[in-house]
Amino acid sequence: MNKTLLSLCLCLSTSLSSANDFYQNKVGAQFDVPEIGGGVGFIDQQKEKVIGEKVYRQVQQQMPVIQDPWLEDQFMQVFSRILSQTQLGQPVGLVVIKDPQINAFAVPGGLFALNTGMVTASGSMDEVASVMGHEIAHVTQRHYSRSQEAFKGQGLLALAGILVGAAIASQADGDIGGAVMMGTQAAIMDKQLSYSRDQEREADRIGMQFMYGAGFNPESMADFFETMNRATSRLSYLPDFWFTHPLTTERMSEARLRANQFPRIPYRNLQYDFDIIKWYTAVVSNQATERQLQAIARNKNIAGLIALSEFYLMQGDYENAQTQIDLAKKINTDHALITLIQTDIDLGKNKIDDAYQTIISKQRITPENRALSYKLAEVYIRQQKSKEAEQLVNRFVNKNSKDIMGWQLLQQAANLDKNNPMRTVNVLRNRAEVQYWSGDEENAIKSLLHAQRLAKENNAMSARIDVRLKVMQDERKLKI
């Protein structure tokens, strides 16, 4: 079973290539977006959110999701800018999947996923933004949810089953996952084919408006379609999602004509930033060879130097990693990723004080930067400073309860707090959150039950555990 099956139903096979920007003023645009969500009941929205979170946990468990705060935040900045053009509430999340295939998908409730292959096939961030805009439009227009009546109320659960089946298939690479998925898919395929083309065109149109309003170049959506069409023409088969989301010549020409009707986006020389993201993504997803990276770095290209340093760092070759990052510093000493890699090199050499000096000055300048704060928290933990680490991480986890890396750091910090009578309870509570959002619901509940027994003499702590335990137990009952 091919991994591309992941994008069935609310998904769009994706590719990229366009130039990027993270801190731009929005360009004024006239929107013509149908008000679909206005008539949606609160219960329906809550149901979508719960199912979106369920699929989020399944994806974390079954798929090779990259846990890299710096990389996640680069895409989240773009994602948030596009979301600002919509009336969607807080999304379930954005995940980056370690998969070389050109793909992305969205789930009702606001779960969005990008494959690393989509990033590495791209030439700029504007094409990534075009894919995000398209997928966000699918969710804002409730394309899948609006079909629930036709599916006798099972639409969202069917989608969840398809995604989880695809996840299993991607791991097993056989027919087991395919059987899980295709059984569910067969029940909805005939219904969806009758309107999928119209919905894809609507997502194209509205997604382009969203990305333009966020300051991205609408031409990149047409560029993306052309890249995707070329990629597909090289295959000896059509991926299954092609039948529910056909890329026709009509869609391609419509996208180009529509993009030409927008006022021109001022030129932005942001290729520098995107190249760093692209090649770093290639390294952490094992899509780049040492020879490739050396060829790029040989021309004193900062993206190549940073990527090559990370490549050596992942191999434990700290000397070569240091050589490359030193060359990168001669070009740009202030880039956050250079600071993060240098800190990791220092930690790898067990030079804890050096690591602290490297990260603290940068983190103090931008305390809102999650990646820098988490790296500083990691240094604090190595220094046995649990309170400082907890204080740093809690600011981010309180805003996003699904932050797995944040919970992992809190678990480590709690374990260091040996004078706290609630030490074991806190370790168990934090471990439960790591397990739960990683998709291991059963063991998360077991961890909380253990914490509950240990905290029975502390009424305040017991009450907190009881509330969280009930939520986990109720949500676990949702079967997909």
TrEMBL record:
Cellular compartment(s): Periplasm
Domain Peptidase M48: 75-256
Stored Pfam families: Peptidase_M48
Cofactor note: Binds 1 zinc ion per subunit.
Main location: periplasm
Protein EC: 3.4.-.-
GO MF annotations in UniProt: metalloendopeptidase activity; zinc ion binding
Cofactor: Zn(2+)
Keywords in alphabetical order: Hydrolase, Metal-binding, Metalloprotease, Periplasm, Protease, Signal, Zinc
Amino acids binding Zn(2+): 134, 138, 200
Residue positions of the active site: 135, 204 (proton donor)
GO biological process annotation, one example: proteolysis involved in protein catabolic process
Gene3D superfamilies, per the entry: Metalloproteases ('zincins'), catalytic domain, Tetratricopeptide repeat domain
Lineage top rank: taxon: Bacteria
GO CC terms, sorted: membrane; periplasmic space
UniProt signal peptide: 1-19
Homology family: Belongs to the peptidase M48 family. BepA subfamily.
Function: Functions as both a chaperone and a metalloprotease. Maintains the integrity of the outer membrane by promoting either the assembly or the elimination of outer membrane proteins, depending on their folding state.
Protein's name in the database: Putative beta-barrel assembly-enhancing protease
